[in-house]
Amino acid sequence: MDFEFFVNLLFSGLTRGSIYALLALGYTMVYGIVKLINFAHGEVYMIGAFTTLIMVSVLTILNLPILAIAVIAALVAIVWSAGYGYTLDKIAYKPLREAPRLSALISAIGMSLFLQNYVRLAQTSDFLPFPRFLPTVRFLDNYDGLSSSQFIIFTTTTVVMVILTIFIKFTRVGKSMRAAAQDRMMATLTGVNVNKTISVTFLIGSVTAAIGGILISAHVGQINFYIGFLAGIKAFVAAVLGGIGSIPGAVLGSFVLGLTESFGAGYISSDYEDVFAFIILVLILIFRPSGILGKPAAQKV
Amino acid sequence: MRFRNMLMIALALFLVGGFAFAAAEGEAETIKIGVAGPHSGDLAPYGLPTINAAELVAEKVNAAGGVLGLQIELIIEDDTCVPEVAANTAAKLVSDGVVAVIGHVCSGATNAAMPIYVESDILAISPSATNPSLRDFPNFFRTIGADDAQGPAQVDYVVDELGMTKIAILHDKGDYGKGLADFALAALAKRGIEPVLFDGITVGAVDYSAIINRVAAEGAEIVLWGGYHPEASKLVDQMRSRGLDIAFMGADGIYGDAIIDLAGDAAEGVYASGPSIAAGPIAEEYRALHVAKYGAEPGQFFMQGVSAMLALVNAIETAGSTDYDALISALRSETVDTPYGSIGFDAMGDATGVGFSVFQVQNQTYVPVQ
């Protein structure tokens, strides 16, 4: 149990945290604006992975180099998943925008079950091998604590986070997203097209989820229709941990969760991996009920 | 009046007809043997081969004059591997007057059916139920090794053949996986070996590098895995992509092509224990009979089914009757030649002489190494 072991666990935690972060973003952005927990979000992640697999199988016939196949397949999958996210909103959530929040929540759970079973019936319930197109190179001499796919996952997540931050901070659409999150009614009154903003939010959330789905599937090398469930639940926990509705909070919460699981599994026992994750959640919610970076809900009188 | 007469005649005819039918049945007395298992649904591939096995043995015995001068009649019932259905299946077989049952196939279904057979003094020989607790039934026999025989088989191979003593045991926290891990742990403890790590993992997690780091940090030479192939292929893949050269061994849950399809090159060198392969003249004979009659290679548990049927026929012949106690003592005392060689049964109903072998993935296919 030396320093190298500690660093190895740190990298494991960062890998998990990165994936959780890509997913948690979607939960937290949607919640920030619509106040809806989109339980079908994990399914968008799963559909991203499945679309990539199908595209890779199709493109392999054309005899392109593996990197070109991977890039094209990933792009198609991202666009396709974004379409799913957009459609989900239009079909299942928009008609319920003015309904009680519970109705939209039930609708979300229904969409999650529907999409899982749809993929199970349309594809298969077996595990399928996923092409490992992340290059595996020993890029660090004499050090095997970090595989190249873990490194790629971490880098991609960082890049996505930076792009997203710039987008939300400095673009017009980003500004209207922040406005809608602060006060939807007021944003409408000042001329922000809230419905369009919500659609964009679903698009962005689905894109990040699809990126996560593709990266992790190429990392673990297999997928089935159920992979979105556990990943979705964990990412949801991460979003709550960081303060749901807050984008930096979701990222922070994801890394806290990933590192807790990794160090818990490494130093104590992986039998209790999930237990550590939820103990952290309970502790943080006891002391900061709205999450690490969440704003306390103002009591309107 | 006329109508009433006709009714009386009809009733009389019906009664006479009934007697005639009963008499016909009484004339052709047979020895009835039940065959129960999943014959429809998802798990049918595990149950159907047993029917073929029972039919082929029955045909052969009947053609040679039957057993005790009587023909064997098979009563085939589907339990779909569902315990509730299996209880009904068992009751049906009892009312049909079977002397013994070949089955059931799934451990859970067998567990539900056995109490009904105990009450009715009927014995059962399962070709496939591996759950250790089934030995609590005095009338239960099986021609497959129990789960707790797998741990010792794995440990024997790892310690004696591979010469490894630094063993990490991982499992998936499920009934099957944790059970196997516990049996391996017990087998190690008998040899005075403490595993370097004993831990469970979360099924479906996005990344297993933390536990793999732990395995490496503890200096394990081999991972003994209790669980199924999806997690096994993730673990072995992530170990290989990290350049870790730690051996990996699972049980029958990873024995099959699925792990090779999923893990590809990373599956190379993976060990799995699985039921021993039937070889020799009797196995060859029944394989050929199966191909001739059904036009395909026999499926899962076929050879165990043949063994069960042969053991039962032999016991009836030795006992000279279909009396319950005589049959049980005959099964426990006699050995019989089967596709697995000469097998017998111990007091717990476990077959002696059938066991587990170790296989290794070499050039993308499992080959026996022991």
Layout of secondary structure:
The complex is a heterodimer of chains A (301) and B (370).
Chain A: H1 3-34, H2 41-60, H3 66-93, H4 101-122, E1 128-129, H5 148-170, H6 172-182, H7 184-189, H8 194-220, E2 222-223, H9 227-242, H10 247-268, H11 273-287
Antiparallel strand pairs in A: 1-2
Chain B: H1 2-27, E1 30-37, H2 44-63, E2 71-78, H3 83-95, E3 100-102, H4 107-119, E4 123-126, E5 140-142, H5 147-161, E6 167-171, H6 175-190, E7 197-200, H7 209-217, E8 222-226, H8 229-241, E9 247-250, H9 257-263, E10 271-275, H10 281-294, H11 302-319, H12 324-333, E11 336-338, E12 341-345, E13 351-352, E14 356-362, E15 365-368
Parallel strand pairs in B: 1-2, 1-3, 3-4, 4-5, 6-7, 6-8, 8-9, 9-10
Antiparallel strand pairs in B: 10-14, 11-12, 12-13, 14-15
Notes on the structure:
The complex is a heterodimer of chains A (about 300) and B (about 375). Chain A is mainly alpha-helical. Chain A has a single domain, classed as ABC transporter involved in vitamin B12 uptake, BtuC (Orthogonal Bundle), CATH 1.10.3470. Chain A contains 11 helices and 2 strands. A two-stranded antiparallel sheet of chain A has the order 1-2. In chain A, helix 9 crosses helix 10. The longest helix of chain A is centred in the N-terminal third of the chain and has 32 residues. Chain A is globular and about 55 Å long. Chain B folds into 2 domains: about 210 residues, Rossmann fold; about 100 residues, Response regulator (Rossmann fold, 3-Layer(aba) Sandwich). Helix content of chain B is about 45%, strand content about 20%. In chain B, the strands form 3 sheets. Chain B has a 7-stranded mixed beta sheet. A 5-stranded parallel beta sheet of chain B has the order 2-1-3-4-5, with helices on both faces. In chain B, strand 6, helix 6 and strand 7 form a beta-alpha-beta unit. The termini of chain B are far apart. Chains A and B meet through helix 1, strand 1, helix 8, helix 9 and helix 10 of A and helix 7, helix 8 and helix 9 of B.
